Amino acid sequence: MKLAPSILSADFSNLLKDVKIVEKAGCEFLHIDVMDGHFVPNITIGPVVVQSLKGKTDMVFDVHLMIEEPEKYIEAFAKAGADIITIHQETAAHMHRVIQMIKAQGVKAGVSLNPATSLNTLEYILEDLDMVLIMSVNPGFGGQKYIPAMTEKVRRLKDMIDRKDLNVEIQVDGGINPDNVREIVKAGADIIVAGSAVFNAEDVPGAVQNLRRKGEGEER
Ligand code: DX5
Ligand code: ZN
Fold it and tell me: Which of 46, 78, 102, 192 could hold 109 in an S-S bridge, CB 3.0 to 4.6 Å?
């Protein structure tokens, strides 16, 4: 299991400090939530913020684009330092082409599905992907409640990937905490995103360790 803290819940006035804390705590990915105020009802950050963090941490830059017309911004995020770019199934009419655009930048490609979007939409693109992101809340804000039906969706996706014998990682994002992380990992999640469960904790390194222990099934 890999951990991807979402900087959406970090202290933006002390962003690098928070990033260093989760890096030191052993987190593998840095999950960067990009929102445009159109696809989702919130506005966050753009490529300049990604660029300003680049070179200051060795974590994988995992950029989650919750924006319309993602094809217009792929090059900018790739140049800013994204290692993975994830776009939403609901935003790209020409999904296959946009995935190729991401890969042409030398960046890994992910596709995200909103809670109501079917796994069937992945049928003809799954083998082109490095990662699928299952949204377990409706995107737009941190601190929402996990939608229980998403656990079965993760299980079914894992089954699709295994049946095709593909090397696609499953990321799950939204409402994950120490109480539900184990069932999500057991269902097949490889990468766990956590925003409020990490950055709203008094003891951030302790929260990271707790999530990892619970996720990996150690009761200690
Ligand atoms: C939601 C974002 C998430 C969010 C997760 O739209 O994509 O990455 O930050 O936050 P929590 O873990 O608090 O649900
Ligand atoms: Zn996200």
Answer: 102
Ligand 2 centre and the CA of 173: distance in Å? 6
Domain count of the fold of the chain: 1
Distance in Å, CA 156 to ligand 1 centroid? 22
173 is catalytic: yes
Active site (annotated) includes residue 33? yes
> Edge to edge, what strands does the sheet with 60-66 contain?
2-5, 191-194, 169-173, 131-135, 108-113, 84-88, 60-66, 29-35
89 lines ligand 1 (CB under 6 A): no
Q: Is residue 220 one of the residues assigned to a domain? A: no
CATH number for the domain harbouring residue 143 = 3.20.20.70
Among the listed residues 18, 33, 62, 130, the single catalytic one is 33
Residue at 61 is within a domain = yes
CA distance 220 to 212: 11
Instruction: Tell me what pLDDT residue 218 has.
Output: 83
Q: Is the pTM of this model over 0.90?
A: yes
| Intervals of the chain under pLDDT 70 | 219-220
Q: Is the CB of 153 under 6 A from ligand 1?
A: no
